[in-house]
UniProtKB/TrEMBL annotation, chain A:
GO terms for cellular component: cytoplasm. InterPro entries: Longin-like_dom_sf (IPR011012), Sedlin (IPR006722), TRAPPC2L (IPR044760). This is Trafficking protein particle complex subunit 2-like protein. Signal peptide: none annotated. Gene3D superfamilies: 3.30.450.70. PANTHER family: TRAFFICKING PROTEIN PARTICLE COMPLEX SUBUNIT 2.
Automatic annotation (TrEMBL), chain B:
PANTHER family: FOIE GRAS, TRAFFICKING PROTEIN PARTICLE COMPLEX SUBUNIT 11. This is Trafficking protein particle complex subunit 11. Residues 257-527 form the Trafficking protein particle complex subunit domain. Residues 1055-1111 form the Trafficking protein particle complex subunit 11 C-terminal domain. The keyword Amino-acid biosynthesis does not apply. Residues 798-808 have a biased composition (Acidic residues). Pfam families: Foie-gras_1, Gryzun-like. Residues 792-811 are annotated as: Disordered. Its main location: Golgi. It comes from Rhynchospora breviuscula.
Amino acid sequence: MIVCVAVVGHQNNPLYLQSFTGSDDALKLHHIVHCSLDVIDERVNNPKRSASTLNETFLGLLYPTENYKVYGYLTNTKVKLIMVTTDLDVKDADVRSFFRKFHAAYVDAVCNPFHVPGKKITSNSFSERVGTIVRSFGPSMTL
Amino acid sequence: MEDYPEELRTPPVALVSLAGCPELHHPISAFLHSEQPPINTLALPDFSKASVLARKKNRDPLSQPTPAPPSGILKRDWLLRHRTRVPAVVAALFRADQISGDPAQWLQACTDLENLKSLIHGRSTRLVVVLVQTQAAEELSEDVMTALRKRAEIDPKHLVEFVQNDASDLRQSLNKLASLFAELCLTYYKEEGRRMRSIIEKKSSPFPELNIRYCFKIAIYAEFRRDWSEALKFYEEAYRVLREMANTSTRLPPIQRLVEIKTIAEQLHFKISTLLLHGGKIMEAVARFLKHIKTYRRLVGLPEVDFLHWEWFSRQFLVFAELLETTAASAPTSQSPRFGTAESPFSEWEFQPAYYYQLAANYLREKRCCLEQSSVSKTDLPSKITEAPDSVMPSIHIGQSARLVEEGDIVTVLPLSDAEYVAYALAEAERFQDCYEIIALYKRAQESFSSHGSQRMACLCTLGMAREYYASDDFTNSKQLFDTVAAMYRREGWAPLLWEVLGYLRDCAKRLGLTKEYTAYSLEMAALPVFSISFEKTIDFGPAGPATLSRREEIQREALNFAVETDGDPEPVGLDIDPVSPLRSVLLVAVAFHEQSVKPNSAASLTVSFLSHLPLLFKVDSLEVEFNQPACNFSMSIPLEVSPNKWLRLTHEVKSGQSGKLECLTVKAKINNNLIICCRAESPALMEDLTMWKYENQRETYPTLDPALSLSGQKSIQVDEPNPLVDLTLNSIGPALVGEVFQIPVLVVSTGHVIRGGELKINLVDARGGGMLMSPRETDESDAHHVELLSISGLPEEKEDDPNTDLSEETKSDNIRKIQYSFGVVSVPVLKEGESWCCNLEIRWHRPKSVMVYVSLGYNPGDVDQRVNVHRSLQIEGKVPFFINHRFMMPFRREPLLISNIRSLISPLEEKKVSLALKENNIVIVSAKNCTDVPLNLVSMKIVPEGGTDSNEKLFLVQEISGISNKCIRFVPGEEFRGVFSITPLVAKTSLSLGVVCVEWMRESKKQDQPETVTTKHSLPQVCVEEPPLVAAIKCPPFSIVGDPFSLYIKVKNNTNLLQEIKYSLGDSQNFVFCGAHVHTASVLPGNEHVLSYKFVPFSAGVQQLPRITITSVRYSAQLIPSIAAGTIFVYPAEPKFSLEKNGSELVV
């Protein structure tokens, strides 16, 4: 189950952060998302990466905490998409497809003429759409 | 890791025991220890000490007919014993003389051997006999050797001779001994391992404990042999059996059983990890560790002792982190293409010790949490739990505890019940202060993370530390750490995280009694962009409380009323907000002047705007606005209401009488009479966004009513200088001439201001740019300045009879006069309105150059205390007054033969130098042309020898033939004057300096006083003076009359001591008839003059050309053809009559 998704801007500032857990560890999820930015920084700035991975938007597993796995995705405008899941055994392909949908939703949200680039995303329809994508992630795992 | 016993932490080393010959023990031990692999030695100085090798009397439990269940898994001292007490080889050392000599000694040796044999009986420990020979000569007989071998019951190769008579022998013997020991050790440990393995394989034991024990032993024996793969295999096996046993064993009470299993699992896992890491298999080690964690994670045990589980769990992370840190194996960064993908399931951090340190700290916190709960429940129900027994000690099995009971002299070891154990564990755990250990772990993690550049992770660790300090009431340290964390979250705009940290900080400040900090943190919290939209109120934000709007409002009220509530302290809290302060969102002040510059004493409008993100409206009681010119400060005491998220704009006018920059510095707002917020004023044009609010989706508003001013408005304005009421005039009389002292009058007239402290600055600058008034090559010479400011004349102190005595005193006192080559400063006396002052700048040009003269007058106008400056400039050309030229000539119809002239014709490449004839009158014509635009008066023209006239020896004589007759001659522009001089060299010299032509002139002046004369110099070239060998002169009357005969003489003088032959010829002319030879030769005697005489009769009148005369010197191959001018004569038709006087008197020539 996905417990948290986040969109992080250029200055590593949160643009959108939604947790889907009923329990009170939302703050912990904030910390997890914030710390995973370190790994993104390291992966993006690491010059040793081979050429084939340079254009890859999916950053893979950022780091495992005891109960969660954190995955990252970097858009071409250097906006970071982060997902935290409690499923400890996730297929890469599923995560990739999730991020593709999430990215599409983000692109649609910032295409809104009333959205100011660089500001937090407060659109309700974006939240709903993300909610749908997140809910559809769980069942696809069990199939 | 340090808590583990030494024998567990280091790889086992084979053990060999030495007995007898104690003097050899040290060299042998040292040698064996330095071998690869090393061998440890157990040295027994004499055979009586051999009893330490005696084995204990416990039997293998399986060898008994009815096997009893083992009381533990691993014995505590087994490993240590095998590393230090149970040797693989026992070596008995005997001296050769002991064996071969005295029979009593032989008997003693036999007894010792027997003793040793009995001690190692039943073991596979090998016996080696070493015969020590001090000299090679002490060869023992074969019989003795055999007898000894038989006594010892050993193979022949186990009887070694040890020769030590010299170094090479000793080394050889040591090598032999070492290789024998190594071989025997290998065999011993192999056999021991095989024995254990056969036990496992033969009888499948009903007790998994024994299986684990045997697997452990096999692995240890394998480690003794450095067979790492086998060791790893059996450790893994032991680990597997142990995990299976965890669910089935019933041997001990459940709590202690679990403790034992976890302790053994920890040891086994430690061994496995060590082996993997030392083998460089870091990926496998990490995978193994994760599996270990996963396996034991849920094995918490009973809730009253769950703290034991978490302590153990935390220790797993700590030990693994320390192992990772000390291991040589590096994380596979370069090999693995990418972390976190299918091909590499690990992420970067799983190879970093810091990650494990951080988790160890987290679990230690968990342990403390559980411990606190357990302690609480214990105090709640004291009757249920037994008191902790006094003397609990570790039992002989690893992971077990036992109780010592003393009854009189008898000490018995009794097992503990679970209740007793729990009480004991609780009591033990409470003795330790976990928070320091947690902080230390977080610190290690934080340092490691920040060294890897993972700032955010390091920040999280710092947060962990800070929370621990907070929990242990160390608010000073806690506040310091929270501050660093808050800085990070502020920078990246993580409002909810910052909210939590600020909550802690606020509480720390409150507890430390820091009113100012408390207010600052509270206000910052209240102004944070957190809303209750996405956060449930159930989230624990620590002391901050829920991140909601209502909580923010509450905090704002608390902060603004805080000082009032505390006491009637008259000292209000002062907060400074600068452009980098996080409190900018509390109160942001933008100040914008409407104009960019303003005239002095006229009003400039400015807008002061306030923006606050505090959730509630607040009142500002009074306002003080401060400028860099304190006279402009103003204050307002009208109450202002600052609404949330909305600019409050005030427009005000200020007047400044002082020119320069007027800048708004600070705005002080007083709130509730207990809080003064001092904001640094910011220009709207340069204002940065608020860190925490710039990402919020809210309406853009402008600090000023005019949006354009919001983009360009500045907090400073330029106040202009007052207009100068003074006339400064610079005059010049046309171009300056090189050499003269050129005067530029400067006139200062006050037209409204009283000039006080006036200062006139003069600056000469090259008009073509560059500013250099001297040539760069000549800078070191003091007089190399092309244009020089000489002095300033007409200054008041020079006028002794200054009528204004009251002013002259002042001017004398603060007189400034400083003149350099291109710069000068003079003071200007006090001038009242309408008065004037004048001076002349005296400038001399050394080279023709165009110069800009800048003159600026700075003064204090009487009324205002500031300076006013007036600037004027004038470009002046510097020109050369005269263009001077010269020409050398010979006297008319006189031609000396100059050899150098002939030579220069032959080789024209040589430098041509003018040649003059010695002791002949050489003519120099000097022409001077006025090339200025003004008429000039020429005073004199002279040729002055170089270096003055004081030279002792006269090298040449100068005679002025025609020059300036009367006082001076006026020359209009373009007019040329010629002076004729005759130079008679007295000495023959190849290089003679003729000196300088000095032209003395002056400007034409209308004034009475004569201006100074100026001398312009022109140097004459170096000439060559030589003695002419022949001088030819033609003597002829100036005119003749038709039909009237006249004589023409050609005189050739020979100046040499040689006979000179000359040829001469005369051409025909139709205008003349003459008598004399047409072509002839003549010889001129030395020192003599030869005269050729002709008589001519002209036929026709007018200017007539005489027949062509040619004189050739045979010796010098030089031909003289007189010039056309020299061969021309005027012929009158009849005798002329010149009327010279008006009265008609006639002069007959």
